[in-house]
Amino acid sequence: MPEPTTFHFYLSRPYRRVVSVVLGVFIFLFLLVFLPYGVDNYNPRHQYTWEFVSEMALFMFLTTGLAWILEVWVKPRLLKQARWQEVGAWSAALLLVLGLGSFLLYNWLGDWHDFSLKSAFSFIGNCATILVFPLVGTFFYFHYQALNRSFRQMHLQWEAAPDRLIHFEGQGSGDRLSIAASDFRYAQAQDNYVALYFLRNGALKKELLRTTLAELLQQAGETELLRCHRSFVVNLRQVRSFSGGNPLELFLDGVESPIRVSRSYREAVLNRLRTAALKG
Length: 280
Hints:
The chain has about 280 residues and is an alpha+beta fold. It folds into 2 domains: about 10-155, no CATH class; about 165-280, CATH 2.40.50.1020. The chain is built from 6 helices and 11 strands. The chain has helices spanning about 15-35, 50-80, 85-110, 115-150, 215-220, 265-280; strands spanning about 155, 165-170, 175-180, 185-190, 195-200, 205-210, 225-230, 230-235, 240-245, 250, 260. It has a 5-stranded antiparallel β-sheet. β5 and β6 form a beta hairpin. It is elongated and about 70 Å long.
């Protein structure tokens, strides 16, 4: 029996942030275009004034704000996987909350002139009909991008190697950190510090050291640490696949977002990956 389709991008930070903004912008543009043609029954003048535009902007801010709270804060705590049933259920709940929020704002702007249960159901249904377009559009755009990346990926297989500790040192006397090679994923330059990302109890953790990537590589002395960008160093053995497109992207085991390879490091990275894969 085939495994159910799981949409990993649906739980990613980029998707959650983008869909929140897209929903708000879409409802704002929709209201600007269609409200002057009879939908706005609390402003019979139907004129484009600053007051009118600012009131329509309130719907944008409300929609984006509610969607942001639900997508960024609530969704990660409720959804642990994203199959068709989770996507459908979450989308319905999201549209319900956004529709209810817009209904309350609509009545507040209209001095509660249409505040009734019947109107609420009708208003929520209308909002859902409008917002389903950007919601579906965003979903399939990210789905297409995920399929495209998957199609262009080249997968790597590594032989098991004895685990060992990688020792990192910062500029301070007590600025030291030892991480198992099987847990360390990548390092990222952040101003005067380097952020070390590694797995602990199945979750990606972060520690800061006051140093530079160049010093980090020199001190660690690890041949499997690979510089792929002026701001990134990756653990070569944790690269599970890479895309051959432009830009080149490295996909690390246990890391949600790919690490981009800059043009100046592209050929060197590809050579290291090919060589390491042959040895592995």
